[in-house]
Amino acid sequence: MARAEYVQEALAGLDRTAGAGVDPALPLYATTFVVVDLETTGGAPDGGGITEIGAVKVRGGEELGVLATLVNPGVPIPPFITVLTGITQAMLVPAPPIEQVLPSFLEFIDDAVLVAHNAPYDVGFLKAACAKHGYRWPNPRVLDTAALARRVLTRDEVPNRKLGTLAAYFRTATQPTHRALDDAKATVDVLHGLIARLGGHRVDTVGDAIEFARAVTPTQRRKRHLAEGLPKVPGVYIFRAADDRPLYVGTSGDIATRVRSYFTAGEKRARISEMLAAAERVEAVECAHSLEAEVRELRLIAAHAPPYNRRSKYPERMVWLKLTDEAYPRLSVVRNLAPTDTAYLGPFRSKQAAELAAAGFHDAVPLRQCTHRLSRRTTMPACALAELGRCPAPCEHRITPEEYDHRAAAPFRTATTSDPQVVVDALLARIEVLARDQRYEEAAVVRSRLAAVLRATVRMQRLVGLTGIAELAAARRAAHGGWELALVRHGRLAGAGVSPPGVHPRPTLEAIRATAETVLPGYGPVPRASAEETERILSWLERAETRLVEISSGWASPVTGAGRFRDLLAKAENGGSHQLSTERS
């Protein structure tokens, strides 16, 4: 065995799927496996130390090829390795080094799932050798027979999961001898014995076998049948309890693949484990494309508030920052907008977020902060803020309603509908003064308020630009041909579909329009949909590959609007106060 012994039958009929890309749904009987075993000098993998490689390629119980060779590790062999394996220094002197063996080995394992007993050890040596000698590791799917045996066999059947013990249990044709090819052939028989036992665990595919070998919970194994029969299409999936209550709602471009992932070792979230224990079935809602799936998910979560969903559950809890309608207006946090409200900002996801933005406006303009309803005719005693110069004291009529509106209320209206320049300049000036005085903690507080103001104004102006359009039709190329179509009315997805490949999309669009939801105009930035739904639609429309097909009116944003401060917003959210001192215009 001084040179590589490479024996392989004709490969004309083999599937040409790279190991890393082997379809996890491929049945085990149709999967090509390469069972490998290494002998080494011991120690940690460092790119060397391999003394022998043995590999057997099998599929459907049939042997397709064999690769076996001694390898010169370039270092002396420890005596105990010689005693264990029978491999001597004299046997390795004429053997090729690992860098000469790797090309043949990497070619041999192409198209296959790699199998080894205690696979991390063998794979670690092979990956280190590839890295050391400049070969790309193909990253094949790996199945560990030792890990699989721990899941399949009980302690009553075998006392341990050593290869020799398993070989005796399955009565393999070749007994392991601490030589690479013999051990690889023994592992082949062990693999076949384990696969025969997997049917009772509802494990029929290579992906299921790999996941089954990992540390999945008993609940995941017991409930994995819930993932059976689901469509491989975009849509929404709903985990339901025994009484049909929705427990969890999710979305994916491939429902079947996504739901299967909940039953793998990669799913470690405690709340999902609890959800799976209560789930009795999974319902799939097929959608035309990803945008419709995302919107349906949001609407289902909002309608049912599933206990195991964390986000998007209570859109009705959104709040607004409103300028009150009185002689000396103030900012008020409210749950709903009235048709008569004209100056407002939002929606905010929480009262705390709205109050942070309000604090930013209070830092920038002299809006009063008291909650009294002030009269044009009678006065009230001033508060401490007036004594500190933080309020123009409209309660004592130190300022006229007209001047108060010009200095305090008008900048808020302008900032929310068009240009927040006055507010931004005032906050940047305050940050600059605080930073110059080395009052960095106070500067950081003002910076967070500036970010809250910009975040809210940018968001609302984007929403207003879309929700003011009565109808908009857009399209983007579908992955498998045809066009994904969306009909949007006042910021709400009214209809969706996909035109067939090779067919003009106009008839499909007209059919969508004829059956689309009727959406009437309303007031506010999000009159007929949640802010999150409209933002999902905006993200889809703003993709480079999306095309506007028809639009009922112009889609525009203010030239001097908040959008031009996006870079400043990013700095305020991520940077220090010193980065903002140069932003004043």
TrEMBL record:
User: Where are its TM segments located?
Assistant: none
Tell me where in this chain the GIY-YIG domain is found. 232-310
Q: Record keywords: Nuclease included?
A: yes
Q: Name one Pfam family in it.
A: GIY-YIG
Superkingdom field: Bacteria
Q: Which SMART domains match?
A: EXOIII, GIYc
Q: Which UniProt keywords apply?
A: Exonuclease, Hydrolase, Nuclease
State the CDD domains in the record.
DEDDh (cd06127), GIY-YIG_UvrC_Cho (cd10434)
InterPro entries from the xrefs? DnaQ, GIY-YIG_endonuc, GIY-YIG_endonuc_sf, GIY-YIG_UvrC_Cho, Ribonucl_H, RNaseH-like_sf, RNaseH_sf, UvrABC_protein_C
Per its record, what are the GO molecular function terms? Answer: exonuclease activity
Q: Which PROSITE patterns match?
A: GIY_YIG
The protein depicted here goes by the name DEDD exonuclease domain-containing protein
